[in-house]
Amino acid sequence: MSTPTLTREAPWQAGWHSAKLLFRPGLVLQCMALGLVLSYYYLPGARAGFESLAHWRTGGGYLFSAIASALCGGLLPFLYLHFTGTNRSAYPWPHLIFFAAFWAWKGAEVDLLYRTLSVLYGAEPTTAVVVRKVLTDQFVFNVCYAAPVGNLFFGWKDAGFKWGPVMADVRAGGWYGRRVLPVLIGVWAVWIPVVSCVFALPAPLQIPLFNIVLCFWSLLFAHILRRG
Fold first, then answer.
1. CA 21, CA 192: separation in Å to the nearest integer?
2. Rounded CA separation 31/66 (Å)
3. Residue 84, domain member (yes or no)
4. Domain count, the chain
5. Which residues contact 146 (CB under 8 A, 6 or more apart)?
6. 40 and 47 in contact (C-beta within 8 Å)?
7. How many other CB atoms are there within 10 angstroms of residue 119's CB atom?
8. In which domain, by residue range, is 217 found?
9. What average pLDDT does range 35-54 have in this prediction?
10. Res. 136: pLDDT tops 80
């Protein structure tokens, strides 16, 4: 596989285009996340369902987070792409292993992040605590680790699970600006409001809400890719 072609579009322009593409599905996700938060606080009849989710999350620990994220972020969107796409060869079954393993790892990783943020800033979902958690999540963890590492692994997958083309692309120069920054801008436009809703819930419900939104996000994003 040849080295990926360098984009001539400025990173901020590419990011802005991504943000515009994701605006409508992102707005749906944001409204859904907000609706779930409001349901928790203002609909007593919904409390039983939330308490069950909190019980499963507390009892399952990191294993719950890994399995739920693998299902919501990996299995469901892959099956959607594989069985509804016009080119099934673009989504071979070995990719299912990658998606499931990647999102299982990310689920446990996000769980650890949320626990760490609660230790650093507190577990009470006050405005000050939510703002600190969102800023740390999106502009420290995401910028310095999650976005670049995720980009590398998806580049590895797209290169036929070969690191050579990925490393050649990195060595070509300006890799972060070309590959990571446009993704970050699109992600920020959708996920800053979403994670604000996530952190507005008690700690045992944060991972379940993350996974509910992740499921719909992955399916919507898969739909965009299928149409592209």
1. 16
2. 25
3. yes
4. 1
5. 106, 109
6. yes
7. 9
8. 11-42+49-227
9. 91
10. yes
Contact criterion met (CB below 8 Å) for 183 and 18: yes
Helix locations, the chain, DSSP H: 11-21, 23-42, 47-69, 76-84, 93-121, 127-136, 147-158, 163-171, 175, 181-199, 203-227
Burial zone of 62 (CB within 10 Å; 0-12 exposed, 13-18 middle, 19+ buried)? middle
In a domain, residue 203? The reply is yes
Please indicate, yes or no, if residue 85 is contained in any of the structural domains. Answer: yes
DSSP string for residues in 26-81: HHHHHHHHHHHHHHHHH-GGGHHHHHHHHHHHHHHHHHHHHHHHIIIIIIHHHHHH
Give the end-to-end CA distance of the chain in Å, rounded to a whole number. Answer: 22
Model's pTM, two decimal places? Answer: 0.86
Q: Which of 51-60, 83-92, 142-151, 178-187 is least confident?
A: 83-92
Q: Please check whether residue 209 lies inside any domain of the structure.
A: yes
Residues in the chain: 228
How far apart CA 42 and CA 46 sit, in angstroms, is 9
